[in-house]
Design a protein that fits this description.
Blueprint: E1 6-9, H1 19-28, E2 33-39, H2 51-57, E3 64-70, H3 78-84, E4 88-92, H4 99-109, E5 112-117, E6 135-139, H5 154-167, E7 173-177, H6 184-191, E8 195-198, H7 200-203, H8 208-216
Parallel strand pairs: 1-8, 2-3, 3-4, 4-5, 5-6, 6-7, 7-8
Bound molecules: D-xylitol-5-phosphate (DX5) and zinc ion.
D-xylitol-5-phosphate binds next to strand 2, strand 3, strand 8 and helix 7.
Length: 218
């Protein structure tokens, strides 16, 4: 199943004093998804924001809230983020939780679910979950900070996961996150990715609408 290419601007690269404005900018420039990077200062060496901020953004935004939980214990926060208005909640295979149960719980609460793997984690680690997720997120940088360099080893991993999707007739979206720009994005698209998180490349783009249009054409 080949999904149309989709941009998910990461609000991590937005204006943290005016997050609602950053969400509006994403929508005004053609995005339909908003990528929300949630960090606990433990699973990753950085802290961002929680369910209360997502709930505050929710009423004024029609964007699909793609919520990336970089948390050691995501199971403790599924309910608050679902209540806050997350449309999709993704959890890391490296997190300290029962991924199978947590992925099922996300869907029970309403949102779509996703499994995420870091650059150093082999694709085989998430293979057992492919038939119970709506999205697989392949990190193309080590999570924690925006603006890092794209890991050029990742297209091979993306291709492996895309192959399994094809062979098994699955329909999950294949998302990439970290260092995605007009150069690295097409490498990921050619490997089988269809959903592109872009923080720096989108929010710092000289022409954000042109950037969004280019991603849509991949
Ligand atoms: C890492 C974050 C970043 C961010 C996108 O934890 O998840 O990957 O979303 O970063 P850039 O600015 O590289 O697009
Ligand atoms: Zn992310």
């Amino acid at each position: 199943m080949k999904h149309a290419s989709l941009l998910a601007p990461s609000i991590l690269a937005g204006d943290h004093a005016r997050l609602a404005d950053s969400a509006r900018i994403a929508a005004e420039h053609g995005a339909r998804w908003l990528h929300l990077d949630i960090m606990d200062g433990h699973f990753v060496p950085n802290l961002t924001f929680g369910p209360q901020t997502v709930a505050a953004l929710r009423p004024d935004s029609k964007l699909f809230f793609d919520t990336h939980l970089m948390l050691s214990r995501p199971q403790d926060y599924i309910e608050p983020f679902a209540k806050a208005g997350s449309d999709l909640i993704s959890i890391h295979i490296e997190a300290d939780c029962d991924q199978r149960a947590t992925l099922a719980r996300i869907r029970e609460l309403g949102p779509q679910n996703g499994i995420v793997l870091n650059p150093g984690t082999p694709a085989a680690a998430i293979e057992p979950f492919l038939d119970q997720v709506d999205l697989v997120l392949v990190m193309t940088v080590q999570p924690g900070f925006g603006g890092q360099a794209f890991n050029t080893q990742m297209p091979a991993k993306i291709a492996q996961i895309a192959k399994w999707r094809e062979e098994r007739g699955l329909a999950f979206r294949l998302e990439v996150d970290g260092g995605v720009d007009l150069k690295t994005g097409p490498l990921c698209r050619n490997a089988g990715a269809d959903t592109f998180v872009a923080g720096t490349a989108f929010f710092k783009a000289p022409d954000r609408s042109a950037f969004a249009a280019q991603v849509a054409a991949w």
